[in-house]
Amino acid sequence: MGLRRTLVGLTFCTCYLAFYLLNKYVLSVLKFTYPTLFQGWQTFVGALLLHVSWKLGWVEINCSSRSDVSTWLLASVVFVGIIYAGSRALSRLAVPVFLILHNVAEVIVCGYQKCFRKEKTSPAKTCSALFLLAAAGCLPFNDSQFDPNGYFWAVIHTLCVGSYKLLRKSPKPSTLSDLDQQYLNYIFSVVLLTVASHPTGKLGRSQEPTAAEDTEQILHGCPFHMPEQAFWPLGSRVSGLS
Q: In this structure, are residues 136 and 235 in contact, taking their beta carbons and an 8 Å threshold?
């Protein structure tokens, strides 16, 4: 049982990292800087796969309640903000930098629960949130490829991720399962991004890069200086956040 859980965890981590590396390749190396079209296609594929799986009886999706669907509409809008701002940020920032800022959303969730809901927070979770916050605070001062626009979109992305997680933890009762919520997110994203694909973003393509340049651009990180470079692995490993 322990080996199976380990393999599942490793598979998830591998796929999770591969997803970001692939998106980074498309956005930065291939210079496909048209996030509305790019994310619209991705969400369309996700919605199509879920719909086909539903019709084949592989998964159960129930979105018949209009009240629940309308209640979840705000979360779907925030989800669109997550993927759009995330694409804009990832196209300008190195993958490690983006993931650090992405994980800061947990600091927002932790702070909200502690300050407004008066929930008890474990010392380990508090320490991990502080490490992540310290790492994010050090980034602009130690990033040799500092891009103000990239950090701006990363902040928007982080705020949207934090808001989305808070909406999912809302105490309001809902009959929507995780699959129902994701299905609605995909459908709404396809519609909104299709409408917005014409007036926003831009499409460009540079000369074909070499394999060495591809690898360098995808995996290129931010050259931190000690002791700041210790913060982000500490925060990520202590929290186990993704």
A: no
**pLDDT tens digits, 229-239:** 444 444 434 43
CA distance 34 to 55: 32
Amino acid identity, residue 173?
Answer: P
- The H or E element spanning position 178 is helix 178-196
Residue whose pair of structure tokens reads 């540079």 in the numeric block: 206
What does the alpha-carbon distance between residue 3 and residue 81 come to, in Å, rounded to a whole number? 37
Residue 34 sits at φ, ψ, to 5 deg, of: -130, 75
Rounded-to-integer distance, Cα 61 and Cα 55, Å:
9
- Match 């000690």 to its residue by tokens: 226
What's the pLDDT at 123?
81
Residue 7 φ then ψ, to 5°? -65, -40
